[in-house]
Write a structure and sequence with these properties.
By secondary structure, this protein is α+β, with helices and mostly antiparallel strands. The chain contains seven helices and twelve strands. The mean pLDDT is 96. Bound molecules: succinic acid and manganese (II) ion.
Length: 265
């Protein structure tokens, strides 16, 4: 998938690109089933909310074949390496659950704030690319973004280690108000299989999910190989230290995997 000049201009202006239905229902169903199995396991990579509900599963591309294929998928890798003009490696890989009734808040933050402060990433030349595993609706804890906020660079933040089980460098309310006055707030919604690519400095958050509807999203954090991290404070399954460029699989690899592994097969 090659980005058009118009898409490149839109990304530069707004800080994100949203592509509804980038993956088919068959491709996503197998990932959804495997994510639920991963959440049931007691792996150290699965972090939980205070209630015990799953919050995030790290590094599934290293221990699950379907997520390995997604982590090397050309529909995700190619646009990001095109944007950076070089090959990319996997800095972080998460399957965020936002579980029905229990999925807690992610406060306002910039991801590059964490990558720079905690991991010593030299430049904001890493990108999150999110794949919806469930339908994301206005009501089930959607991601919210402040368009154009990536143009403000890396903003002051405080390290919140108490509000949720996940430590985060969060922005204060005055800053969020100022940014929202300028850019507004959007919450992209769409079917499972939709893809949202967003700049490392784009300010985002998500509210709790108090509905019965799950909202799983996979995040690949792809970093330009020349921009690899320089500090190793976090576990290597949270902030990866293998800087090998990703060699994309074929476009039908996940579809083939789904065909041979679907529960109905
Ligand atoms: C994140 O900001 O890294 C995760 C937010 C979410 O999954 O709701
Ligand atoms: Mn984030």
């Amino acid at each position: 998938m090659k980005l058009t000049d118009q898409q490149l201009a839109e990304f530069d202006e707004l800080g994100y690109l949203f592509t509804p239905s980038c993956f088919s229902e068959a491709e996503i169903q197998v990932l959804r089933d495997e994510a639920e199995e991963i959440y049931k396991s007691d792996r150290k990579e699965v972090w939980r909310e205070d209630t015990g509900a799953p919050r995030t599963a790290f590094a599934a591309h290293t221990y699950n074949e379907a997520f390995r294929l997604l982590g090397s998928h050309p529909r995700l890798i190619d646009p990001v390496s095109q944007l950076f003009g070089e090959q990319v490696y996997m800095h972080q890989y998460k399957i965020n659950a936002k579980a029905p009734f229990d999925g807690a808040v992610w406060q306002w933050h910039q991801d590059y704030g964490t990558w720079a402060r905690d991991d010593g990433m030299p430049e904001p030349r890493a990108m999150n690319i999110a794949v919806f595993l469930d339908e994301v609706m206005p009501i089930n804890g959607p991601l919210m973004f402040i368009p154009k906020s990536h143009k403000r660079g890396t903003l002051d933040a405080s390290h919140d280690t108490t509000t949720t089980s996940y430590p985060l460098w969060t922005l204060d309310n005055d800053m969020v108000t100022e940014l929202a006055d300028a850019g507004g707030i959007i919450a992209p919604t769409g079917p499972a299989g939709s893809v949202m690519m967003f700049h490392g400095n784009l300010v985002h958050a998500s509210p709790p999910n108090i509905t019965p509807y799950p909202r799983k999203i996979v995040y690949l954090t792809l970093n330009a190989v020349s921009n690899h991290i320089t500090k190793f404070n976090r576990e290597d399954w949270i902030a990866h230290r293998d800087f090998t460029p990703i060699d994309p699989v074929s476009d039908d690899a996940l579809q083939e995997y789904a065909r041979s592994h679907s529960k109905a097969a």
